[in-house]
Each structure stands twice: as structure tokens, then as C-alpha cells.
Amino acid sequence: MRDSLKIAAAGCFIVLCAGGAQAQTSPRPLFVSLGDASRPPIGWIEFCADNPRECSAPRGEPRDVVLTNKAWKDLARINKWVNDTIKPVTDMDHWGVVEKWSYPEDGKGDCEDYVLLKRRMLIQAGWPREALLITVVRERNGDGHAVLTVKTDKGEFILDNQHPDIRLWSDTDYRFVKRQTQFDQNVWVSLGDPRPLMATATSR
């Protein structure tokens, strides 16, 4: 099924880039609404305590990626490689604790670990950190989940270990809770979701 990623990605890119007017009139919101400042997840705080160099990047200016065909292919390649390579495992099974964010150096990890690795690989490939934002969402059943938001001039796209395809944020069925800000990765902001609440969604 994952072999269809390249085809799906190409199709998505063509639809988005076929014409600016079409993208502008799309009923799907391209960008999520930002709210007030929010406390960073405890997993991020502990990750930074263990990896201070990873969290000491200087404040930067907001930067959105220009989503060229090459950029999309690079994004799809890295997303697919991480999803295919890392074996999903819970933190409790992996580390014996409820929550631990870390790079999946041993080839295993949960959602946050996928996100951290994708983010690092994209930065190493030359992508601006300010456009790669760790994001906390809620699944339909209310469970917490982490994804990577990639801010582009064509909208905000989601890299997700639970989905092979890269999707526009408003095409997912998640409720968006909070994420890193573009100017400072250690400052988080709550998110407003303009989409109507789904009948099957729950919160806790």
C-alpha cells in the first residue's frame, strides 16, 4: 500500500499547484488558526533536558517552504523512509515509562520519535527549522498523538506515522491542539480548528 505514496503525492502536488486561483477558492482551510501561548508537552521539556543542543537553536523569523515539485518529492521520500524503517512501539514497551521523546536510534519508537527523526532529516537536507513544527493532535477516540506540520506557501501539510500519504492539515480527521511556534521551537501555541466538530470525535 505504501508503494502508492509516490503516485498519491504527485497527484496531490498537481492538484495544489495546478492553479493559484483554485487553491485560493478551496473550501478546505490551508492554514490552521493560532491561539494563545501554551505549555510545551512534558515530553519535549524532558527531551530538551536530555538534548540541550537540540533545543538551543536561536530564534528565527517565520519561514514557509516554497513547495516546488522537487521539494514535494524530497518531503515524500523522507516521510516514506521513516515510516517504512521505524518499527512502532509504545514508550511503555520500549522504555518502561508512559512518555519519553527520543530519536529512534534502535529502529523503534512511537509517534513523537517518528516526528523528531523526520524533522532532523529534513533540517539536515536544508529545510528551515521554522517551517517544521512538532504538533500535538487528538485522534477521533480522544487519544493524544504527535505529527509534523510542514508550513508551505501552498498550505500546512502533515507528516504522520499512521498515514502513508502526506495530507493537508484540514484533510485529516484530527483535532489540532498545539504546536511549536515558528520563531522559537521552545515556545508553543494553542491551535484553533475552524472545521465543524465531527460527530464521532471525543475529548478528554
Automatic annotation (TrEMBL):
InterPro entries: Transglutaminase-like_Cys_pept (IPR010319). Keywords: Signal. Residues 1-23 form the signal peptide. Gene3D superfamilies: 3.10.620.30. This is Transglutaminase. The lineage of its organism: Bacteria, Pseudomonadati, Pseudomonadota, Alphaproteobacteria, Hyphomicrobiales. PANTHER family: BLR5470 PROTEIN, PTHR39327.
